[in-house]
Amino acid sequence: MIDFWEILQEHFVPFLNATGMTLKLTSVSLVLAMVLGLLVAFLKLSDNRALNWVAHVYIAVIRGTPLIVQLMFLYFGITSIVVLPSFWAGSLALAIHSGAYVAEIFRGAIQSIDKGQMEASRSLGVSHWKSMRLVILPQAFRRAVPPLGNQFIIGLKDSSLVAYLGVAELYGAALSAQAENFQPFETYMVAGLYYLVLVLIFTLLVQRLESRMDKANSGRQRDTRTRIA
Q: How many domains does the structure of the chain reveal?
């Protein structure tokens, strides 16, 4: 344990910088994944068979293959077309991976909204896409927040694999540190501690966000009942 504390103190700054890179990588990849996931969700809900098929194949391939294989395949595929910094190549690869899971989150959230709301909106002469944008999506986003928070935490841990693409995030910092001190067990314990702290913090934030949303929803329901009464 003495070596553990020595490594923790000696590599505090490099691991702190790597933590920032991990958070940046996770945030960028999740934002891109949300855009991609929403698009794929619309494709999967589409009546067009070709678009529906594309969405099904994409989700099936991503879910059916290991993340490390996807990262390597996408990384070398991206860099063979256009040379990108390892950070952006890794972010795109993670986004494509997470996009399949985010698509299913959005699809489920959209389908959970009562179909009568769309029908009522269309009966008032509002177009389908405008009804989707103004009526369905705001409610779907609120329902998607908890699983999206969980996906962020999963993405945070999955980002460790991007170290193999040369990104100096937490696991990459651990790889470099253990190559210098020849103490892999203690070094990876330090990296694990950083990951654990980050996951606990974001788990707490997601739980608080869910609690606030539940209270806000309860308040809206009480106001609606009061106006009706």
A: 1
